[in-house]
Write a structure and sequence with these properties.
Length: 276
Amino acid sequence: VENQSSSALAVLFCLTLVTDMAVHLLSKVSVRAGDSITIPCLYDSKYRNHVKYLCKGYYWSSCSYTVKTNQPYSSGKFSISDDKTQRIFPVTVKDLMDKDTDYWCAVEINRGDDIRKYFHLSVTRGKPSLYVDHQEMTGFNGDSITISCKYTTAGEIKWCRLGRNCVTGSSGSIDGTTVSINSSVPNVFTVTMSGLTTQSSGWYLCVKGDFQMPVHVTVTEKPTTIDVRNPIISLSLLIFIAMVALFIWFMLRKHSKSVLFFNKSKSYHVILSIYS
């Protein structure tokens, strides 16, 4: 019984640790030297009001602060923000160099060890192992978007929502949004998300083997447009155009009469001056 209790406590401790570390599925990202990359760091809701930061270095004990949420613009190379609704703090590293490889997403704990999660940037001079043309994608409510995930490495293909579930086959769903994956083109797999809602907004991951590439999706309401095929709208539009045309004609006619009156008056005064 004692051994079972100890095992149960150990499992509970591990589960708590995993929850606290809270950055799921993102550990290795391939990037081209000279480019920029944004890494989304996910945290537990109990740390919503804590300071978050990015620490640089392979060893946690010797890593150095680069940027913090209470000092978000302390460096031109690094930037950070905090989305407390999604519980994600994105960190951006610009102008990547060969030495920009080892980082930690971290949350400050006032009385205890800071919560942290290591990730590795594989900086290359050639094509990255997994990449997208744009990390930011936008779509409208009810529509669909397609993301092209390009790769040069082997391994299983996945499309995941950060901190949630993944689609590993040719189709599936994430939070009610239909997902289809097409891998018929060599070195590219395309992900189509259909039936978008505003709740679909958030961070996702292209996954190929050991590599992940974060992609941020923003879904907004579709702008309202006038349907000219509607008879009532068409009639209203015609009436409005006719009224505008009538107003313009009236103003031009009034102006013409004023010019004519002015010219007649001017001619009368000229004639009067000659005879006088």
